[in-house]
Amino acid sequence: MKRRIVFFLLLSIFACAVNSYAADIESRLNALEETIKQQGRTIEEQQRVISELREELKKSKQEDVVAATEKVPEEKPPTEEKSLKFTGLFGGSNLANPNISLILNTFGYTSNLKQIELNTRGIPGYYTNGDFTKNNIANTKGFNLDSAELGFYAPVDPYFNLYATIPITENGIEVEEVYFLTTSLPYGFQIKGGKFKSGFGRINGQHSHVWDFKDLPLPYRAFIAGEGIEEIGVQINYLPPLPFYTLLGFEVLQGKNAMLFGPDARSGPHAFTGFAKASFDLSDNSTLLIGQSVISGSTKTNTIADNTEFQGTSTLYDTEITYKWKPSTTQSFTLQSEYLYRDQKGDLSDSSVPGVTTVNTLKRAQDGLYVQGIYQLYRWRLGARYDLLDLFKKDYILSGNQTDFGAKPWRVSGMLEFNPTEFSRLRLQYNHDMSARDGRANDEMILQLLFAIGAHGAHPF
Amino acid sequence: MKKYLLTFLMVLLLTTPALAKVNVVATLPFIGSIAKEIGKDKIDVATLVKPSQDPHFAEAKPSMILAARKADIIMYNGLDLEIGYLPRIIESSSNPKIQPGKIGNLDCSQFVSAIEKPTSVDRSMGDVHPLGNPHYHFSPKNILKVAEGISKVLSELDASNAVFYKSNLQSFRERLITKEKQWGSRPLKGKKFVAYHRLFEYLAREFGFQIIAYVEPKPGIPPSAGYLSELVELIKRSKPNAILATEANGKKESEALGQKTGTKVIILPHDVGNPGAQDWFSLMDTIINSIS
Lengths: 461, 292
Prior knowledge:
The complex is a heterodimer. By secondary structure, chain A is α+β, with helices and mostly antiparallel strands. Chain A folds into two domains: 30-85; 101-454, Beta Barrel (Porin).
């Protein structure tokens, strides 16, 4: 700027010098003064504009900074969304809806026996009466639809979870299980209420689609039938904080099971269960589970033989042991066994002779056992099972006299499974069944297919 | 008798401070490792899944239920990785402290920006995780977020040690930043790999390498012969630097493929506790060193 002033000054002086001859010195000096003043004003004006512009620029920059800092929270919502996104335990796509699953259980069946023989094939001394086709005992030759099982589960609120298992069969809709489960009781207590599978024994608590074979082992068939003890009632269990896993449970049940109790045995709840289970990790790869259960109650059934009715009390004991070895994902081996013992006392009324009803005391003390092993290699599973009744005890004492029914009932089974994923299962099973005590074998072949869709929960050990 | 009772009570009193530690149950080893970095001796950590186990196929064991029964807090990976066993364990634990919605139920994925979230999903695509790729434990950026989250929750749960947790988080953060620079300087950019499972996607994104194909045709589905022969062709054509697998996940299949194509196979530790991975930092060291 100064240079410019000097330049203008020199220029003016030069101009003055050029015109010095024409005008008088006084007026020339005045003019010069005026010019300098004017130029000074111009410079001042320019400086003012410059500083004004500078300030404007500064302001706008500050505004930019403010805008930028304001933009940060604008970018935040995605991170907030992140914490809001639903990552709950119960899967991805549900906030308010219950988890719903459907499991198709279907199988093809063939046997060397005629259909009529199958439908009436009982175990003398245990049961020979009842609708075996409905009781999950007799199968139809050819194609069978076991069920399409609907499953629902969801937390009710912070205090309860709700579960429902509703198999749909060709005969209609059943309620296999529907129960609540507490989640917030202190000191390791939990209460289950509604209709549920009893905690009695090992297989009893499993749904049919997680069984290792298509059917239940003989002791279950002989003492319980159906798909196990499924009763309306309440269960309380306690998990004490011990160094090893222990679960203690107690149940009060209505007692509807057709073989053990019967709905009319007594009004009100008339079956009671107690169980204790313990588990130890023998190593990183192997686990042992043992348990003892007992169920006892009043009985009124008509399954022992045709045209009979039994009234009395029944107590069923179960001792279970499971050993699981799983060194890797690709292979595992499970050895499982249960020993069942039933004590029954009461009166058997027999009306097989028309018009005449005879009543005799009946005392039954019988037992049975199954042992099964399952070996898994990649997606294949190979299994074998041996069932036996009348193992140590075969008391059937009618009016003080022991009745002998003949050879011990037994059965041997083998199965091969292919599981394409955890949601589908193809199983081929063979049974050599000598349970009817008549010396005739029931050789059965079963091809079972299981498919699960929807949100299916985790399976227990 | 009274003397014995008194001694018993004294012993109880003396052992109480030890009981005052926060009981942390972590599903996966890396979660336990990070919790330990933050909680140090103020917490006890029990891990449910063994380091050698494939986390996809872990099963509920009664001993896990017992551990959950005694927990003050359960920390899990989330994004459905534990869906096969954890809901059952939490429910069966009869422990109100760790139920969903409680402070003792910590889904670590809530702190993470998940990638590969499918826009639509059904099971014909294999074992796809609808909430995104759950294997974020190889991602330093996300692990820092998880550590921050764990520190925050531990401070809430055990307020008297909040300062301790915060300072441990700070040293964890500093260590991670230094390490991240180290890892970032390794020659990984532009490398190409074939992987058995979608385990290394976060790592690939953060360190600029590429995973061009998977030995599994779909997540959780083992490869068929037809698919493998296609893969052999692809590997011969595009010559990846190596095939990546872990001890528990796809080792056999990957080694067979490596032999067929003359490609190097790198078996990586998939979680803390395997050889070369005492903690999360050494897990990352081993992985970055092995593949660069």
